[in-house]
Design goal:
This protein has 221 residues and is of the alpha/beta class. 38% of the residues lie in helices and 11% in strands. The radius of gyration is 17 Å and the shape is globular. Its EC number is 3.2.2.27.
């Protein structure tokens, strides 16, 4: 499984690719994909980086695991392939988007258009075995994606980090709050959203207000 990733990311993460943990991780992932059904498809594992180059990144949204159902995961956190039914968390994201900025509920759950505008849709773990949530956690992906977050924090300024839910909020420890903007809320999953921790967070409009304030183009959500 070759690491197909934008040149700007290759330059920033070259040291990580040479680490022993990364070699062990790639060996594990290759074996898993050879012996089991895994998601996303191999060509989409690094899709978050392919669609959002390092130099273009201005918003970072952190998820945890890829979807583990058939044909759902496309390498972008919370996103599903075009034509696939929207999972509950994505439904709540789109409902909040509708309430916050007035965007009509979309037919497609593919968030690639966000990524192409500079939103890095980063799962902490980039692969998963089919129907086995968390099966590829603690194999090295977290070390890699933590390094991505640190690199963004260290090398860039004025990024907006969207941390939804307890797991994502822990990533705040990797981010320099003096240089960046951190927006936190509950997770969009029904368990959290139905308890009042998600709806009304206004993160989409807040993100665009921040971007405009610092002279960057807002996101067309």
């Amino acid at each position: 499984m070759p690491v197909t990733i934008k040149e700007s990311w290759k330059q920033q993460l070259s040291q990580e690719f040479r680490q022993p943990y990364f070699s062990a991780l790639i060996h594990f992932v290759k074996k898993e994909y050879a012996e089991n059904t895994c998601y996303p498809q191999g060509s989409d594992i690094f899709a978050a980086f392919e669609h959002c180059p390092f130099d273009s990144t201005k918003v970072v949204l952190i998820g945890q695991d890829p979807y583990h159902g058939p044909d759902q995961a496309n390498g972008l956190c919370f996103s599903v392939k075009d034509g696939i039914a929207h999972p509950p968390s994505l439904i709540n994201i789109f409902k909040e988007l509708e309430n916050d900025v007035g965007k009509s509920y979309p037919k497609s759950g593919d968030l690639e258009h966000w990524a192409r505008q500079g939103v890095l849709l980063l799962n902490a773990t980039l692969t998963v075995r089919a129907r086995n949530a968390g099966s590829h956690q603690k194999k090295g992906w977290e070390a890699f994606t933590d390094a991505v977050i640190r690199k963004l924090s260290d090398e860039k300024g004025g990024l907006v980090f969207l941390l939804w839910g307890g797991y994502a909020k822990k990533k705040a420890a990797l981010i320099d709050e003096e240089k960046h903007y951190i927006l936190t809320s509950g997770h969009p999953s029904p368990l959290s959203a139905n308890r009042g921790y998600w709806f009304g967070n206004g993160h989409f409009s807040q993100t665009n207000e921040i971007l405009k304030k610092i002279g960057k183009r807002p996101i067309e959500w």
